[in-house]
Amino acid sequence: MSKDAILGEIRRGLKRGPLPEDQAMALRARLAAHPRHLIPARSRVPRPEQLALFVRNVEKEYGTVAHVAGLADVPAAIADYLAAQNLPTDFAMAPHPELQALPWHLRPMLQMRVGRAQPTDLVSVQHGYAAVAETGTLVLPAAPERPTTLNLLSDTAIVVLRASRVVGAYEEAWDLLRAERNDPVSNGFMPRNVMLVTGPSRSADIESTLELGAHGPRRLHVVLVDDDPAAS
């Protein structure tokens, strides 16, 4: 069903026609302005504290973080994590140019399949678009170079994230996405979906007992590339 058909059904349910032009103009102006909501003071801190806040919040939500000095150190960090967790050395990896350019040959035991995750994949490696310090949340928009299945199907999700892409508040993450999608292909439209991931999947619905991996990955590991001089 098209968007116009859906909106038409809603109007018929409300027993009204299109909005008067003055109301429609007010709504368009509000959408174009991207108004700010209440931003927690905890995210309004100096840059080093912002990065520390992000790490604390990831760990508070049962995720883990490993710092690396540069992108070249990512394969070793992933190999070390897999060994420490007694996990297999094969994984599905996002077809992102930055990931594919890493020196994987330095860790020949690692075996990757580039593309979407399959239900049988135990480990996935995703490229992090951005993250929000105030809650320790990863921002993962759907894109050909970032398949959404990598965020959902594997038991262990590893996300490679640049420290320079950690922002303080959610509003700043949306600003980043809008600015960087202002191109002839997308014409500024939002991706098909944007996943906001805070820690591994979990639920306490049954007898208030926390169960990790309820609806997605049981482990979430962030490899944080320390590329932001302002954070040191």
UniProtKB/TrEMBL annotation:
Record-linked InterPro entries: FTHF_cligase-like_sf, LUD_dom, NagB/RpiA_transferase-like
Tree of life domain: Bacteria
Record-linked Gene3D superfamilies: NagB/RpiA/CoA transferase-like (3.40.50.10420)
LUD domain: residues covered: 130-225
Protein name: LUD domain-containing protein
Provenance organism: Limobrevibacterium gyesilva
